[in-house]
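## retry 2 of 3
previous attempt timed out at serialization; input unchanged, resubmitting
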Amino acid sequence: MNWLVYPFLISILLIHRFMPIPRSLTWIPDLLSLLTLLVIILRVVHHEKIVISTKYVFLLTLFLSFAFIGTALNVESGRQIIFGVRTHLKYLPFFLLPAIYDFTPGEVKKQLLLVLGILLLQCPVSILQKVYFLSRGIFTGDVVRGTIGDSGSLSIILVCAAVMVFALYLRKRIHRRAFYVVMVLLLFPTTINETKVTVVMLPLGLMIPAFLCEGYLSAERKKNILRVVFGLVAFFIVFIPTYNLIIKPYKDAPDFVGLFEKKGYLQRYLYKGVRGKSYEDVRRGDAIMLALKTLSDDPSTMAFGFGVGRVTQSFWGSDEDSLFKKAQQYGAQHIALSQILWETGILGLLLYLALFVFLLNDARMLVKSDDLFGAMALGWCAVVPLIGVCLIYTNMLHTNGINLAFWYFSGLIAAKAKMKALRLQYLGMRFNLPSGWRQNPVNVSGRQRV
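## retry succeeded, writing output
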């Protein structure tokens, strides 16, 4: 199945809509999603086993049912439905792919090395972008996007990658010198693109694996925590002066310390209390409050939303009715949480968040494994809450590099956790098998029948 995974990973991390390339190339992830769905259907039809926990089947069924209700009640255009399905369900085939194919540690290692190679490429690309725009008098870090297409998304992906590398280092799967070099190359672009979310995500992301890492003596765990502390100190020693240097040309913007000292600055940065007028600057908190205010006008829309695709803007245009224009004015697509609220309501949002809780539980259970997947799960215990925080920071639904990569590797963790549960169940039953029970009811180690 690597013939599907490799082009998938390359396309979502190297190709984005702001590149001067034919628009058709940006459809590669969508085409691969359809192809992956076809492969899954064919394998299931041919009676191949699918390894997925019942809780995910139940949750996804509920989400699809509630989304259908909201769509049936509010959406009148078939084009809107296509936009909505593409936005909310494009990740699903990649999430299910590890459930129908047992990826070996060697195959997953190659996938991780491919991702790491692409992400290390972001450092020289980001430096070239910074130098290019500085030479033209453009000082903002928003133009430092790497190959991802957005500065905030670039920082999120690189921080998550750094967390995963740290988890592999804790599990002694990466050498110390390589670890230091990789961490510097991954985090340097986050110091020159001014993304403030880095100072929140990085400490949180590194502390979680340090506390959860098991199999070490207490003294060793303390060393892990000290490594994180010293690493963060070194990072901020570089980050703060770089941030102040970059922000200096903007006289009205405070320096790094001023962000916390300037009265009301952070509050206004996140929430201004606007009413959604056309001339107002809608911030992240405003987008959430305006979505809740609009949904509260009707109990059915509060529960199920206005239907998938109703407020989605596409390259092919949208049915710009009064609701769509109002949603755009209210910042419906500003962050992922607000768009989920608008299109699937409170129930859809709760089910979406429940997926994160289930993934975190599976990762926590898989951490106890001594193989590569246990090391990945250790990092994923931090990545899941970090991506959850990103729901109120950016609209990851439209960023393939975050959305699709997160759900593919989440599906891998979920499938391996289910396989571990099946293995433990089988080992617990083999010494007391009921009459007529086959000696090998579930082949949890094979590649085809899992």
